[in-house]
Amino acid sequence: MRRLFALVLLWACVEKEPEKIDENFIRENTLSAAPTPRHPVNADLAGKVIYLGCDVDKEVIVRGTNLKIVHYWKVVQAPGSEWRAFTHVEGSVKEDWLNVDQTKLRSMYGADKWKAGDILRDEQVVPIGKTWKSPNATIYLGLYRKGAQGEAGRMAVVSGPTDGKNQVKVLTLPVSDVERKPGPDYVIRRATGKIVVDGKGDEPDWASAPATEPFKVAQGGGPVDGEATAKLLWDDKNLYVLVTVADKDVASQYTKHDDPIWKEDAVELFIDADKNGAGYVELQVSPRNVTFDSWFEKGRAAGGDEKWESKMVTAVTVDGTLDVRDDTDKGWTAEMAIPLDAVKGRDAAMAVRIPPEIGDTWRLNFVRVDKPKDGNLSASSWADITIQDFHAVDRLKLVAFGDAKGQTVAPPPPPDAGPAPDGPKAPKPNPKAKKKDK
């Protein structure tokens, strides 16, 4: 019976009686200017309505909780009295599907009442139950004709992200059992000078960049020989990474790019720049400075694309003797310059600003792999992972892009501030100049 009901919902959107009209609420949610949503979309529905994008209250949904999402609509031409707005939520598992058309704004001031020039703030609560099986949830929306069923009854999406069935693809968020703390786990400082990728990390910018907390041993794995930490910097071209590893036995036999270097000592980096739990990149470097990179379009289960090239530049220094197994080393340091647009993999349309703006956020994680001479492979990680799954996209840490001092919000100008030092200067008044007639 429950399955039959779900199928009925798939076939048609459910309408409810409108709430009592609250004119103040409508005025408060009719904006005077277009906002700048954190997740811009800019989808055009038949030249009549532009879906500008949305803000969300979390970047990872925990099963059994609600997602608050604020939609922004711009009305170019009144849709007409027959149109209604809908929202669908879909997972990668067929049973994970929700119809959540109703919002307070739509009940009081629905698409059938929208007027040309309206810019509307449309807040919605999406419940993701504990039985949600998929590792992610994708939000779709659009306009449908009252009484119509299926794709044919939806207003055409003429530009912007879509599923090809006249549904605007708003965003995809990972779904996890792990509770997230608010705010970023790390602020990436902007480099003020040139970073030379030499494996030394001795520039002043590296000295001022904070290190992550020491990586934790992967759950279910054996002990790891020595501590590992990471630092991050950025500029308009690259994301810079510096990983410092303490290791008494530094070794790796692999010599060719894209060899399976993860089977011995290595550092791995996973980046999900749009934070949707789907497309992400994996980047690795070994103490021999051999690299591996792969693009995962649909997650680990679908496999990676090892023919994709990140074009990253790497360098390694070893404090000890590489591949001499019977002496005692101190460790190794890996430095990486990753082109910013590499984080999109093969998805050029990924909704990620390149270069980022101050305050933008990505998700990423570091994994350090250790393979003793006589022992099983072990690993440690910045995020909490298991030894069975280094990818663990739902557990990636949140990083924010900051300025050179680590601030993620630009400070306000001082009172009565003059023009910027390199900005235009106002001409000095000339009391002798004659006024011209207009």
Account of the protein in words:
The protein is mostly beta strands and 438 residues long. Helix content is 6%, strand content 34%. It is built from four helices and 22 strands. The chain has helices spanning 2-11, 23-28, 104-108, 204-208; strands at residues 39-45, 49-56, 61-62, 65-75, 83-90, 97-99, 119-128, 136-145, 157-159, 168-176, 186-190, 216-217, 228-234, 238-246, 266-272, 280-285, 291-296, 313-319, 331-339, 361-370, 378-381, 397-401. The strands form three sheets. Strands 11, 12, 13, 14, 15, 16, 17, 18, 19, 20, 21 and 22 form a twelve-stranded mixed β-sheet that branches. It has a five-stranded antiparallel β-sheet with strand order 7-4-2-1-9. The longest helix has 10 residues, at 2-11. The radius of gyration is 26 Å and the shape is elongated. The protein starts with a helix and ends in a 37-residue tail after the last strand. Mean pLDDT is 89; it is low at 1-12, 417-428 and 431-438.
Overview features:
438 residues, mainly beta, twelve-stranded mixed sheet, five-stranded antiparallel sheet
Oligomer: single chain
Percent of residues in helices: under 10%
Q: Roughly how many Å is the radius of gyration?
A: 26 Å
The major beta sheet can be summarized as:
12 strands, mixed
Inertia-based shape = elongated
- How many extended strands? 22
Q: Could you list the spans in which at least 5 consecutive residues all have pLDDT below 50?
A: 1-12, 417-428, 431-438
* Number of discrete helical segments: 4
Which class do the helix and strand fractions yield? mainly beta
Terminal residue distance: 78 Å
